[in-house]
Amino acid sequence: MKKLFTVLISIFIAASAYGLTNSTLIDFVITGNADNLQSEDGDTNELITAQQSIFNDNWVVWLNESARLTENRRNSYVTNAESQGNGGTWEAGNVLGIRVHFPVASWNSYALVKPGYELEMYGGAEGTKYTEGKGVIHNVGEIRSISSWVYGRNYLISYFVNLQNELGVLKSYPMGNVYFSGWRQLRWENSEYLPNVRDRILVREPLYPKMMPSVKIDSLCFYRTKDTRGGDFIVYVKDITVEHDLAVVDFEEDIDDEGTWQLIRTENERRQAIEAAKMREISELRDLEQRRMGADNQQNTEEGNQEQAQ
């Protein structure tokens, strides 16, 4: 817990002391290799279970309600696509391949590409189960920019990155469209970011207890307007990186607040319990649906065999 919950002071002090930093929110080269899906929890390596896995093949595509026709859902999915790398920018590996089947009719529609299960913001004993390129960044102050390497196939589709903070607040960041061919780094810039500390409104922040300012990946969004051709849409995403101020300064204090009160630990355990309960419910519902579909398929097969016998 000490690794995660260090002493917090004002964001403007952190910014002036450390400046900007680039953090990898998610790297699909990492999540595309099952051997990488381990997190350090004390002295043990905890393999992320199948239910919680962020392995590329386990991501799902959710269409908006008006686009959620059977054919569209059946033909909208992700895959672990092999990439040869990008001219030395990164080495060969797997990236997230996305296929969306938008409605052919002329109406606005979108697709959300999400992990199979919602990521725990503070997963694991140290809260770092999904950090280091697996979907979560801790110690995030003000965000200056978000970047994402995308392999386009000349579709006039808009791309958004949806992030959730430690309070559960969801925010969507427009990255631009994917109307190009090959690899390109798309970028969102915060027009309200003030690089000079003298231009900022300075406030004193309560130091304890306060949850670590963090963000996690909620989904990738691809938006198609009614004027754009429907049907199949193909795109590949390599990563998402966040350029941000640090919100935490690590320094020695006379009194160990957390050791005295354990307020942050209690809140962290409460949130983990809620997130785990949500994941269990989703898992049970999906298991029930898979068993129901299996029973339906078996019944259809038996009926088909009976018809052939007649």
Essential attributes:
single chain, Jelly Rolls, 7-stranded antiparallel sheet, 5 helices, bacterial flagellum
Uncertain regions spanning at least 5 consecutive residues: 1-18, 39-45
Number of strands: 15
Main sheet: strands, sense, barrel: 7 strands, antiparallel
Q: What's the CATH topology label?
A: Jelly Rolls
The class by helix and strand makeup works out as alpha+beta
Supply the CATH architecture: Sandwich
Region (Disordered): 285-310
Protein name: Flagellar filament protein FlaA
Subcellular location: Periplasmic flagellum
Biased composition (Basic and acidic residues): 285-294
Task: Report on the architecture of this protein.
The strands form three sheets. Strands 1, 5, 6, 9, 12, 14 and 15 form a seven-stranded antiparallel sheet that branches. By secondary structure, the chain is an alpha+beta fold. It starts with 10 loop residues before the first helix and ends with a helix. Strand 2 and strand 3 form a beta hairpin. Helix content is 22%, strand content 35%. The model is unreliable at 1-18 and 39-45 (pLDDT under 50). It has a single domain (11-261), classed as Galactose-binding domain-like (Jelly Rolls). It has helices at residues 11-18, 28-31, 70-74, 257-261, 263-309; strands at 20-27, 38-41, 44-47, 60-63, 77-83, 93-102, 109-114, 136-138, 143-153, 158-165, 170-177, 181-189, 214-224, 231-237, 239-245.
